[in-house]
Design a protein that fits this description.
141 residues; mainly alpha; 5 helices; 81% helix
Length: 141
């Protein structure tokens, strides 16, 4: 993918993360109730803290989509997804909310990992292209 396209995708990922975080901050009970069907909803404070984390992460990535922040966001999402799987295993009462949270974080982490891998492939391709003299195929015989 071209760098401009990757930048747009990265900023869109960040903006979507801001949106999810903002929703959890502003309407924690309503969203948790929607996910759980109104039963066994996590405490609003927990939902707001997680929303705040997403809002901060998304804002940083949207404002400054550097590879370091993208990797950091991806790792944070992966750790969050893993922690929610543990919550689902140890607290069955909150399983539905935890698995939903793990799914959202996992999907976000996959987007971030895709951006990171594409960036690395692109950089490797550019280095390889510069090493090949013009007028040759670059293939050794």
């Amino acid at each position: 993918m071209r760098p401009a396209t990757r930048s747009v995708l990265t900023r869109a990922w960040g903006a979507a993360t801001v949106g999810v975080g903002l929703a959890f901050l502003v309407r924690p009970h309503a969203l948790a109730g929607l996910v759980t069907g109104g039963r066994h909803t996590p405490d609003n404070t927990v939902v707001r803290v997680l929303g705040g984390r997403q809002l901060l992460q998304g804002a940083l990535i949207t404002r400054t989509p550097t590879p370091l922040l993208v990797v950091g966001g991806t790792v944070t999402d992966a750790l969050h997804a893993a922690s929610m799987l543990a919550v689902a295993a140890f607290w069955p009462r909150y399983r539905k909310a935890a698995l939903t949270s793990a799914t959202i974080a996992g999907a976000s982490g996959i987007v971030g990992a895709t951006i990171v891998l594409d960036d690395r492939r692109s950089k490797h391709r550019n280095v390889t292209d510069r090493d090949v003299p013009r007028g040759t195929s670059g293939v050794s015989r």
